[in-house]
Amino acid sequence: MLLPFTKMHGLGNDYIYVDATHLDIPDPAALSVRLSDRHFGIGSDGLVLIGNSSVADFSMRMYNADGSEGRMCGNAARCIGRYVYEKGLTAKAEITLETLSGIKTLHLYFSPSGELQTVSVDMGEYSLIEAPASVHSCGREWPGTGISMGNPHYVIFVDDAEAVDVAAVGSVIEKLPAFPDGTNVEFVSSLPGGQLRMRVWERGSGITLACGTGACATAAAASLRGLPASPASIVMDGGTLQVSVSGTRILMTGPAATVFEGTVEI
Fold it and tell me: What are phi and psi of 238, to 5 degrees?
């Protein structure tokens, strides 16, 4: 079977997108592992299936590069907004998306000439999750805050995020017994002008260039510390997201881009 796909990215957080509204993918977890391989596959941080929904305009199922299923991905949600609009699956500028962490609302923003520029995702409310005040990794303690954006995050504020060995430290924290389902790990430091620099170790994928839910968790944790003013500019390896925090509600805005399209045998 030849499977049509579109590779897209949100600030370098790249996934393989498949219109599954009329397709049955028998083993998406195994397919994600195979196609995500950057040497023997298409290469990506995972696989995203866009499906039908009885409660929203569309549904999203997202699988990490290791085959584990994620409950939510902000960058993927933005890309789905671009995908369904540009593929003619909808003419709406406000789209509802069913995810494993609830229904999210996407808002598409256009230039005066009608070009789709950015997509906002109403991420709903964040919540604090039970997590230790600090964890041990690579010979030292790392104080952090546990935040849920529908998926778990452990946000660690440091003096200089650039100086952290994200792979070494994050890979240990991800799988600590304190996080029985694993966790995403964000390392955050302040930049001039009130921006926040964030580097991320994603559960199931490792280091990625950007993480939408991680940026939201970072903004939430920052708001609990009294900084910065909303909206926060979260600077990641792949670019910058704008995240607004109102109480416990989160709105994330940023770009989504198509890389290439093709077919692959499955």
Answer: -95, -5
What is 2-122+254-265's CATH topology?
Diaminopimelate Epimerase; Chain A, domain 1 (3.10.310)
Annotated catalytic residue, options 73, 79, 138, 216: 73
Average confidence score pLDDT of the chain: 96
Q: Is 211 marked active-site? A: yes
Amino acid at position 6, single letter:
T
**pLDDT at position 230, please?**
82
Q: Give yes or no on whether 2-122+254-265 and 127-247 have one common fold.
A: yes
Homologous superfamily of the 127-247 domain (CATH): Diaminopimelate Epimerase; Chain A, domain 1 (3.10.310.10)
Can you give the three-state secondary structure of 50-69, one letter per residue? EECCCCCCEEEEEEECCCCE
Active site residue 138: no
Choice among 79, 138, 211, 216 that is catalytic: 211
